[in-house]
């Protein structure tokens, strides 16, 4: 099963110069990363997804700058824009105006745009960090299970089976319910964020662990590992220098595809009132408030919903692209 | 087959015990580590020392965890009396605890609400398996066609949309806008048509997410299987294409799908909670959310346990199904 290492060069462009360069390329060979990158660049949807993801990251980092540019604060009340009788915004479409690009929220009249921008911080923070927790745990335990086998493998594999079948959302909710308001120097939203990141990551590691274990099982029997072992390589050398580099591709794929799932879990928890605490802005929490007003003020429901949709879709497109680019079979 | 069955039953029992242990220790140990008196979680905030002491005695909160755990297990089989200061509250077997907030035993609450959640999950599962598998198989067979592109685009949107957002939008359109279906839950014993009308949107909403996931997976698996050598062999022998698809390709496509079904049951429960909240269905999800709001720990514990039990039992069923479809499993 060999990957197509070289692009076929169309005849009309094959002048001497190009041919020489191609030949040089062919001699040097290209790393898996280079091949994947070339393939990824050709996948328009994946590139689009990647661009959106990158812009979202920038939005999250520069949230204070962006909101100050439009002159809004996420927690500033604008009750003059609220109908005192119904609690809904007075303007059309949820109070959209040149001041409030996406309108204002019901009752308090806080600027929706500023809250969406700040909400991106929470979503991406939880999405990325919990994925990191999952990757570290999954890689370490997956390699251990696959490489050593025996009772260690049995123990880790059974734990993975159990965690995968566990109703995790319910579990996280109950865990958050017993968590105190102050913990390890953090307070309120800080505690909730920490718990969410750790627990979402903890329930995510079996997805990575299963793949890593399977790969390790087949890789450890390969000739090059055998060769390293017969040359007297230590266990640590084999694990880190021989096995780990070959696991990077599947780990990357599953991590990119795990981030959107984690973002959805965070939004779900906030939607259920078990996520970050008010007044911290989060998309799921905005939808939670929107439930009460969605007939009178549908705009307030649509905006955070679309924000979650675009974010998750972009990550999924990018992740699918990464998977296809790294998949040597290239069937899809 | 019998040995396999016994082994699986034993594994399921072990898993249940582990789940009880884990959930129980969360509610017992975390308050201890974080320095919160668990008794304060069972009574209101403005409770005096005497009331706290009463609760502690009644629930045996000062006993070591093993004693408490034993009492908990015992109560499931023989019931339990909660006694303090001369007054006794009887909780009949199977006693899953007693809520002191609502002055009710937990078990009747659970049996009351379980059918709603169960009906939601089963109805949705029927829809998503039919739609997801059909869409996936057809897409794989007509790869690159309009049908393939359209259904895969819809599927990608499906996995990227938060379920409570799709739910709210469908409510706004089909129930409030067009008035086609009911937006209220009617118990099935009262009126079957009303129950059905109220359940259509929740079923479809839940099925949309999972159907999308299964369509993507089925397509990918089917594409892989159709490229296998034995498919070519079957065709070369002159087997009709319909038979090749039905008997040769579909059967091996089903194995990873069924594995996924087992893994997804835990996730399904989480999404069922979200769906129930969105559509105000009086199921387990709503019960647990209400309990979280009131910090009613026995109810949270009870719901977590019964959900976990449902997942374990359903997993057992899936495993047995699996061994019927794929005989290799029994031998492993």
UniProtKB/TrEMBL annotation, chain A:
Q: Does the keyword Membrane apply?
A: yes
Q: How does it sit in the membrane?
A: Multi-pass membrane protein
**Compartment(s) where it occurs, according to its Swiss-Prot or TrEMBL record:** Cell membrane
Keywords, comma-separated and alphabetical: Cell membrane, Membrane, Transmembrane, Transmembrane helix, Transport
Query: Which InterPro entries does the entry link to?
Result: BP-dependent_transpt_permease, MetI-like, MetI-like_sf, OppC_N
> Which Pfam families does the annotation name?
BPD_transp_1, OppC_N
ABC transmembrane type-1 domain span: 120-319
What parts of the sequence cross the membrane?
Answer: 45-66, 122-148, 160-179, 191-212, 299-318
Q: Does the keyword Nucleus apply?
A: no
What family does the entry list? Answer: Belongs to the binding-protein-dependent transport system permease family.
State the protein's name.
ABC transporter permease
Originating species: Streptomyces gossypii
TrEMBL record, chain B:
Topology versus the membrane: Multi-pass membrane protein
Report TM segments: 9-30, 118-141, 153-175, 195-215, 254-274, 299-322
Give the source's domain of life in one word.
Answer: Bacteria
Q: Where in the cell is it found?
A: Cell membrane
**The keyword Transport belongs to this UniProt entry's keyword annotation:** yes
Q: Which UniProt keywords apply?
A: Cell membrane, Membrane, Transmembrane, Transmembrane helix, Transport
Q: Where is the ABC transmembrane type-1 domain?
A: 114-322
The record's listing under InterPro entries reads: BPD_transp_1_N (IPR045621), MetI-like (IPR000515), MetI-like_sf (IPR035906)
Where is the major localization of this protein? membrane
Query: What family does this belong to?
Result: Belongs to the binding-protein-dependent transport system permease family.
Q: Protein name, please?
A: ABC transporter permease
Identify the species of origin. Answer: Streptomyces gossypii
